[in-house]
Design goal:
This protein is mainly alpha-helical and 198 residues long. It has a domain at 101-188. 84% of the residues lie in helices and 0% in strands. It is built from 8 helices and no strands. It has helices at residues 2-10, 12-15, 22-43, 49-82, 86-89, 99-122, 124-150, 155-197.
Amino acid sequence: MDKLKDFIQNHRLDFDDQQPSEENWEKILQRLDKETESQKEAKTIPLDGNWFSQIKTLRIAAAVLLLMVGGMGVYIVKDMMKAPQVASRSVRPKTPISPELQQAETYYTQLISQKEAELKKIDSKEADFCTIDMESLDKEYADLKTQLLQDINNQQITDVMIRNLQTRMQILNRQLNTLQKIKERQQNMNSSVEKISM
């Protein structure tokens, strides 16, 4: 490869002996002139009736876009209001809380989220029913948190908050166990009915 490069450099004048014809340069200049004219035409806005129809079309498009964005916003807010997440239940206060409570809160909120997801997979109606219990516990937890903010070193409030989280876990575990037992019984009954019908 180096030999080729050296050869080309040494014989450069032999390669550059021909020039493009004048016709080629004229064609190139004509093309450039056409392109610049078309660019100038694209930048000018005519002030006849067509210009007003373009603005009207843009206004309609903007209104449709605004309606779509507004509709999506309403849907998202409605969806968020419909199924509150466990993460929103455990809002951390701006003042520091005990490390024990922080660890317990993190641990239990993760478990609660997992259990709620399992419950929704098995039976969404039961998950809605269970949400009622969880909402009352959420309210109690929020009240306890405001009390804790007033008296940050109160161990009793911290203990009650941890018990609240444990109670949520117990409720979800009971619901899951009950639903799994019901599911197993239904499967056993279905297999018994199949054996009898054979």
